[in-house]
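Discussion board: Methods & Data

I've been asked by a reviewer to show the raw model output for two of the constructs in my manuscript, not just the figures. I'm not sure how much to include, so I'm pasting the format here to get opinions. Each protein appears as its amino acid sequence followed by a line of discrete structure tokens. Is this the kind of thing reviewers expect to see in a supplement, or should I convert it first? Here is construct A:
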Amino acid sequence: MFKYLLLTALLYFISYLYYVKVSHGLGHKAEFLQLRRFLPCALLAVAPAATAQIQLTNSLLLTSMAVGISWIITYPLLYWNTYHKNSTDFGFHFDTVFGLYIIGWLTALKIIVLNFNIFPITFLIILTTVEFLILLIPISQWIFYFLYKSCIDENSMMMLQETHYNEILEFFKSFSIPVNLLIFVIPTSVYGIFIYLNIDASVSTSISINIYQLITLLAIVAFLTIYLWKKGKGVFVRTGIVELYLDVKEYFETTKLYTQNMKERLKDLQVTPQKPVFDKPSTILLIIGESESRDYMSAFSECEYDTTPWLKAKKEDPHFLLFPNSYSCIAHTVSCLERALTEFNQYNKYDKQFYTSCSIIDIAHKAGYTTSWYSNQGHLGCADTPVTLVANTSQTAKWTKQNLNQVQYDEALLEYLEEVNPQKNNFVVIHLKGNHFNFINRYPSQFTKWGTPGKYDLILNYLNSIAYTDSILEKIYNYASAKLNLQAILYFSDHGTLPNKRRSPNFDGFGTVRIPMFAYFSDEYIQKNKEIYQTLSDNQNKYFTNDLSYELMCSIFNIKSNHFDETNSLASPKYKFTREMLTTDLGKMYIKDDTTK
């Protein structure tokens, strides 16, 4: 019995000391509470092995301990490594509780299976699979940390939940074969080792327990099953990584209130005039780019490569206005566009929420436009994100087909423009795949301008993708001008990227938020909206974040509304923001600190 008490003491003290070490800002009350709480947890971790008197070196216990210890260590340590320098208050005691309890739960189940000896190998394989799936969560966190040198946070969890399956395939294809082998071989090998160890232990271990021991084990399993897995209240859902997952999932569920609140929102919305003032049916375009950085665009920067010949040529055309000081509000598509497309922004976050805010689609409806949304983004994943919720309020909303492992280039969107009725006043949103990683998949191989076609090279692939986007923008402009009586275009990218670094969910410098933005206006538009055009022309060099795009579009529509704050509009003489006031990363960073600009 001494060896079991010794193991209990080791688990207890090491777990407690480790918890204190990788926590910040714990008060004496919290430290004392966990000092008491971890003792029964450690007792229950060892109790099944002690009850059945199995050896402490038995694989039935050791694999269970490997799972439990991995939970005790992983999220608290990775969080501490990432945030201990800039956060003063955190602790994850439920990870320790879960880790200790899962040791006892798994060990007890294995012993019960072997005691009854009914298809023991089959049931043991099932239990080992469950054991491995529980272990896979910490393994995945370590792989993420290896790739990004950061623990999974809210932004990265959102990215993981909304990622399209083709993006997952592209992500893994971007790695070398050895790295992919490492990513897949490690978990597979661990699973194989666990199967071998548990089956081998079952053959060499003789389990014979009396009725009292069996009742004790069943009671432990029943108690731990309830305490670990109870819906909404179990220890599992209160561990750090699972709680983060559920918080993000709840966020996506909350955004669905946007659809439920639509009638109430529109009932309050007032827009004047309610009909466009152009001489004949006309079209206004909003084009949203993806991951395009102005740092690599020859129209905005001194580049070695002429990546944007069409847009660069248009700089001398007074119909085109380029805005060289535009920034993204965050380097994350959904979080950015839920703000860019609605009243909700970094600067009114305490007054508004996405799901209560009017969108630019709502404004366009009220202003007398037929609305269409065409996207090559594949619904941005399987979830109803804020972007898809806004898109689906359009009278027409279509996405290009995203078949498994099939690359869809942005030129596929051009055929959708042929569906737009030139006999109506149209507001059309075109959402490009643009320059999203993996860049080599963003343009046809025959379009390659720099480097070798089909050869993986992050920088050159990115430059080619920008040149391809430039050609797509030219084709959209040409078609709309010729066929749809085009009056205005606003183009901006959701965020930028650092092409020589793999996409990171965390703020990775201002290079990830320096974006291109330009506008086009026809002669008729300029003649009928002289003040708007002149103000935008005068404000070309002012600083701007794209979460204010809603107000800019309201100005381009030349409307007045009870849901339009003109002081947020770059096209208004009342525009209030300066470089010193503007922020990015959802208010965490000031644009003025971009010293490389």
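Construct B, same format:
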Amino acid sequence: MMHIRIKWFLVSIIVLSIGTLSACSNSNTTEVKSGYKPSVKLSSSYHNSNSTSKAADKGTLNLAEFNNSPFTGVADPIFQSMQEDIDMFAPGNGGSTSILTTGNANNLFNVDHNNQIINGGLANLKLDKKDKSATITARSNAKWSNGMPLTAKDIEYAYEVLANKDSNTPEFNQDMEDIKGLKAYHEGKASSISGITFPNGQNGKKVVLHFEHFAPSLKYSGNTIMWDTAEPYEYEKNVPISKLPKSSQVRSHPIFVGPYKLSKIVNGESTSWVPNPYYYGKKPQIQHINIQVVANNDFTSALRSKKYDFPISINSSENQEYPQVKNLNDYTEVGDMGTMYHYLAFSVGHADSKTQKNIMDKNSKMGNVNLRQAMMYALDQGALAKKFGYGLSWYPNTLISPYYGKYYNSKTPRYTYDMSKAKKLLDEAGYKYHGKWRTQPNGKPLTVNFAGEQGTPVQDARYNYYIQQWRKLGINAQLIGGKPMEMNKMYSTLENPNQKQIDIWYGSFTVMPEPTPTQLYGENSGFNMGHFASQRNNELLNNMNNNQSWNNDYRVKQFKDWQTYFASQAAYVPNEMSMNWVPLNKRIKGYDLSPDNNQFWSNLSLTSEDRQ
């Protein structure tokens, strides 16, 4: 009980501090410059000059997954929707750094420093623009961690699982229908995908994808058209695709193609790994890896006690620990520009279970764009980033990170704090006061139900600040159940295609190396849990990879136009981006977050048997 009381006492202090910052903001000069870009400078690699210890490498690399909820245990990238699952199975699913920096479990291809696909990985890629085809050729020695050969069918079967109407994976998106025959298969009109062929038979190593049109994004890992992991057909063929997500092949006894294989899983708590003897690439140097779920509140104490070598990944809510962690003598900080962001999103429609399309309902409670914009103008997000970003986070202006260079639109306007403007927007839209609170334009009561997952005191403070500001606006806003939601419960609610419980929520996305946002915000996207859809949105998303988009100036313009349009709709509004940073025990050697580190796990070694 004492711990809970202390926690809430700290939250109260933090909320008061934010309220003071907001009250002092001048609506005519709202920009807090230090809240709009990171001030901390970090290197993307750690250069340890000490020699590797063979005795130490025979020991265990202990990694922490800081999270207040158990991981769900989904090992297959096709069905993974939670970053926690991606992290817990990273040694088996990903040979490259991208699984840590962008959440992309790319285990087929190697990439260069721009995330462009190059030869040398588990498979090579050859694109033929004239023929509108992509040839994927697996290595002759490509095998799964149980010794089974990786075949052409394994590469093709991933598309069968992704596009099957009964798989219900959020990874499927409408851009994949550029593959000939995939749309007919997805709609149940065909039993196979006609546009995927096997020049040397299903047991060979070569697959050819034939496209309706050829998109420039195909050159990059993580594009929204071509999937870049394989699926073990022989291992899974007797499991109906609808039952695959909960099968032992995915949950209890998964197999992998990465540098490590799973040796033990404790449901919701930990995974343990040993080298995969069938891995094609550089053999791992460290003989044991253990990844343990650790409560967020134990972040600094777990590092101070030297229980863990490094966190597998960090949510920006842990940035509050940075001032303490950077002073730990046994750890050094590594980091670079990340692709993950936090956002506020509104429920504005539903998903049609038959067509699997998102349908926006302009008459829904949150369907009025004035209401959504007003709720954003009521928040001083720059002040939040300044106070709680610790130099690592900033308030972004768009859902495309500066990580993506020329595709990022620096001119897209932010929703800067302006309570007068917020009130005017509601007045103009007919949200009149009836007593203490505003009503909907149709006269019905307006109660806005907000959800945010359980986390740290700073997260709690953020949620309470939002509620405070929206109430100042005259909106009867409340946390569902009066407190943050357990993470898995929150997302299972949002994944319901016609849920009415959550009106607005605080969430996060880690974005693929190729920035086309169809997979997150497209009409067919399962990740589009707010169900925003419009003709203009479809048009701009499609333009990013149409025939004209081979002209890069045209493609860049489509990205920039989309960012400004999508921001104006205020259905999903980013409120925090952060440096991708990791506290690293100084006995680690070979740690490098560069995109072209295609042997991330195999390059790691230890210089001491004990954490220093």
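Answer (T.O., handling editor elsewhere):
This is acceptable in a supplement if you add a one-line summary per construct. For B, something like: The two ends are 35 Å apart (CA to CA).
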